[in-house]
Automatic annotation (TrEMBL):
SUPFAM superfamilies on file: Winged helix' DNA-binding domain
Protein name: Transcriptional regulator MntR
UniProt cross-references to Pfam families, sorted A to Z: Fe_dep_repr_C, Fe_dep_repress
Organism encoding this protein: Modicisalibacter luteus
Family: Belongs to the DtxR/MntR family.
PANTHER family recorded: IRON (METAL) DEPENDENT REPRESSOR, DTXR FAMILY, TRANSCRIPTIONAL REGULATOR MNTR
Length: 148
């Protein structure tokens, strides 16, 4: 397999490619928090039987007002349902987003581990990479895992 990487190459990428790369990065950042929240809500429901605002704040290391603002955005996006005195529930769309995010995380983490990255570092790094990886790259990662 040949490598396309050449550290001595100093050419700029084409303007259209540059724009596309920045657009994709902005889009990924926009959805990153949504994905992290719905994945955590899904985990809390699975592990503890319920997802509460206080537990989300504690797990993410943020204040409850910060969580409350995001939960309102998730409701507006149709990803969760808030039920007074009963906690938070994912909609079908929220469940789909949580499952897709978890799948990407697991694939990226597995690739990093296969490349020799320690399990702890791979878990942490995958948390950021999972939101920015394209479907093409994710498919290549899956092929890499199948072959190695």
């Amino acid at each position: 397999m040949t490598s396309h990487f050449d550290a001595s190459r100093e050419s700029l990428m084409a303007p259209d490619s540059h724009v596309e790369g920045f657009r994709k990065a902005r889009d990924a950042r926009r959805t990153e928090l949504f994905e992290d929240y719905v994945e955590l809500i899904d985990d809390l429901i699975s592990d503890e039987g319920e997802a509460r605002q206080v537990d989300i704040a504690r797990r993410l290391g943020v204040t409850q007002p910060t969580v409350a603002k995001m939960l309102n955005r998730l409701v507006e996006e149709g990803l969760i349902i808030k039920r007074p005195y009963r906690g938070l529930f994912l909609t079908k769309e929220g469940e789909r987003l949580a499952a897709a995010s978890r799948r990407r995380h697991m694939i990226v983490e597995a690739v990093l581990c296969r490349m020799g990255v320690s399990a702890d570092t791979a878990r942490i790094d995958a948390e950021g990479i999972e939101h920015h990886v394209s479907s093409e790259t994710l498919a290549a990662f899956e092929q890499f895992l199948k072959k190695s």
